[in-house]
Amino acid sequence: MYKTVDTTTLRNHVSDVVSEVALRKDYILVTRKSKPMAALVNLDLLEDLLALSNKEYLASIRQARKEYRQKKTLSHGEVFGAI
């Protein structure tokens, strides 16, 4: 279940709600008359969402998954050298 806060509670307790979102690295749906209207999102989560909307980034993920399925991977030593 999604965590929600109504607009009146948010207005009266914005500092507490922002702190909770920041500490939990999560999001809270903002509701008006019990209907979701917006979301308050942790900055790290927002950056992840923005990255996922980048077509080049998504293409690189698809390519990496394809190479992994084809066993085209490198060991730690091959990437970083001997320890």
Can you describe this structure?
The chain is α+β, with helices and mostly antiparallel strands and 83 residues long. It folds into 2 domains: 1-41, YefM-like domain (YefM-like fold, 3-Layer(aba) Sandwich); 43-72. It is 57% helix and 19% strand. The chain is built from 5 helices and 3 strands, in the order βααββααα. A 3-stranded mixed sheet has the order 1-2-3. Strand 2 (27-32) and strand 3 (35-41) form a beta hairpin. It is elongated.
Summed up:
This protein is of the alpha+beta class. 57% of the residues lie in helices and 19% in strands.
Radius of gyration: 20 Å
Distance between the amino and carboxyl termini: 46 Å
Placed side by side, the strands forming the largest sheet appear as 1-2-3
Q: Quickly name the level 1 CATH class of the largest domain.
A: Alpha Beta
Instruction: Sketch the topology as an H/E string, one letter per element.
Output: EHHEEHHH
Helical fraction: 55-70%
Which fold name fills CATH's third level, the topology of the largest domain? Answer: YefM-like fold
What is the strand content? 15-25%
Unreliable segments (pLDDT under 50, ≥5 consecutive)?
Answer: none
Q: Can you tell me the overall shape? A: elongated
Structurally, the number of domains stands at 2
Helices, by number, come to 5
Provide the residue-averaged pLDDT. Answer: 90
CATH superfamily membership of the largest domain, which one? YefM-like domain
Count of beta strands: 3
Give me the secondary-structure category: alpha+beta
